[in-house]
Amino acid sequence: MAYITKSPWLIHYDGSSCNGCDIEVLACLTPMYDVERFGVINTGNPKHADIFLVTGSVNEQNIPVVQQIYEQMPSPKVVVAVGICACSGGVFKDCYNIIGGVDKVIPVDVYVPGCAARPEAIIDGVVKGLGALEKKQKNLDTVLTLEKVAREEAEEYD
Amino acid sequence: MINFFGTEISFMQILTGVLYLVFAPVIGCLIAGIDRKITARMQGRFGPPILQPYYDMRKLFAKEAITVRGSQELFVVCCLIFMIITGLFFFAGGNLLMVIFTLTMASVFLIVAGFSSNSPFSQIGAERELLLMMTYEPMVLLMAVGLYLVNGSFDVSEIVMSDPISIIYLAGMFIGYMYVLTMKFRKSPFDLSMSHHAHQELVKGLTTEFSGGTMAVLEIVHWYENVLLLGFVFLFFSNGTVLMVAIGVVACLAMYFLEIIIDNGYARMKWQFAFKSGWIMTIIFGGVNLIVLYYLKLFGLIGA
């Protein structure tokens, strides 16, 4: 088994969440759920993170923020969209400022629906993300090449 | 006996040096794992497996290497090399002053690595690390002077084997060293420059811009350093007898446990407090202890 599945470090970003999911994400760290028993650390630093937890939908203002955090994370990396807003935009979907779910901006690996997503569901989502991480770790060279191509294409597009 | 640039080195010294080289990271890793477990239990959590720091290190080595500036990696590797050299000097029974100076060298490389990226978090972290160095360095040097006055030698091998039990004469120095040890272990309340916890006011401070393998090397440096710092604690107790060696080892473990309690009991302090209190503790406990030692020597109550 790859070591990355034993020590997944998180970074949590609040898109335009109502804070419901954010509180549930933090609840995962409390003694009740204690995700650190799986080696999970809430790093707050994209350069140390393996899993990107996004809560809330993406709006016009934070597109570059979400993209930049994702870009700064070293591969292999996984994105988990927590809560229905992060998955599809939720009740805010039709707001004038909302673009939609996180997958409109960066590739998402795991969707955790719910309003708010329960801590059990979030932990389950992270564990699902571990499977994706392991696969990406195995094919790290391919992943790196694909990312490089995508970055070059994006630069041309700009 | 081998002649090494004019210094006689016994096979015993080489053996202890090699043992340090091989086992210090293992012991450091286990200490870090037990630390995290105990910390979790103190907070009412179950905690990660004991080998978690090892898993983290292996994971970091397997990740993509993102380097902000090429020189950064060189500095971090230099930091590791100097830390290993420091430990070799110490555990092979070398000169204590030399040990302290090379230890400083390792810290300097870490700070330079922090300064080498333009990230403000990393820069502030490096500045704080400099401040902490300014705070703990006088105490560490005083400790070496104290150990010299009691044992009559700066050589670690002599200090370990010589008759007086240093802690009796150096109780003040020991308290002062305990105080600055919190900074060296990077524990709250003095984990200003970087921390293993999720304090996020500086993101990750000095280590913000390190990722992947570079970060893993830093972890290994930390393991080596912790074992070395506990070695200093051991010096206060050992007089060569089996009993005192055992007491010394127990004292090292008790010391680390105390640090964990302090770590969990305090929030992070401002650097002003760290600096002032560090020097006050150094002057009061280290300085007064030194004066007492001077008078003890004057009246011929301690040897040499």
How is the topology of this model organized?
The complex is a heterodimer of chains A (158) and B (304).
Chain A: E1 9-14, H1 20-27, E2 41-42, E3 51-55, E4 58-59, H2 63-72, E5 78-82, H3 84-88, E6 98-100, E7 110-112, H4 119-138, H5 140-157
Chain B: E1 2-4, E2 7-9, H1 11-42, H2 52-62, H3 70-91, H4 96-115, H5 120-151, H6 156-161, H7 166-169, H8 171-184, H9 212-235, H10 242-265, H11 271-298
Antiparallel strand pairs in B: 1-2
Describe this structure in words.
The complex is a heterodimer of chains A (158) and B (304). By secondary structure, chain A is α/β, with parallel strands linked by helices. Chain A has one domain: Rossmann fold (3-Layer(aba) Sandwich). In chain A, 39% of the residues lie in helices and 16% in strands. In chain A, strands 2-1-3-5-7 form a 5-stranded parallel β-sheet, with helices on both faces. In chain A, strands 4-6 form a two-stranded antiparallel sheet. Chain A is flat and about 45 Å long. Chain A starts with 8 loop residues before the first strand and ends with a helix. Chain B contains 11 helices and 2 strands. The two termini of chain B are 27 Å apart. Chain B has one domain. In chain B, helix 3 packs parallel to helix 9 and helix 4 runs antiparallel to helix 5. Chain B is an all-alpha fold. Chain B has a two-stranded antiparallel sheet. In chain B, strand 1 and strand 2 form a beta hairpin. Chains A and B meet through strand 2 of A and helix 2 of B.
Which of globular, elongated, flat, extended, rod-shaped describes the shape of chain B?
Answer: globular
Q: In what order do the strands lie side by side in the largest sheet of chain B? A: 1-2
What would you call the structural class of chain A? Answer: alpha/beta
Number of domains of chain B: 1
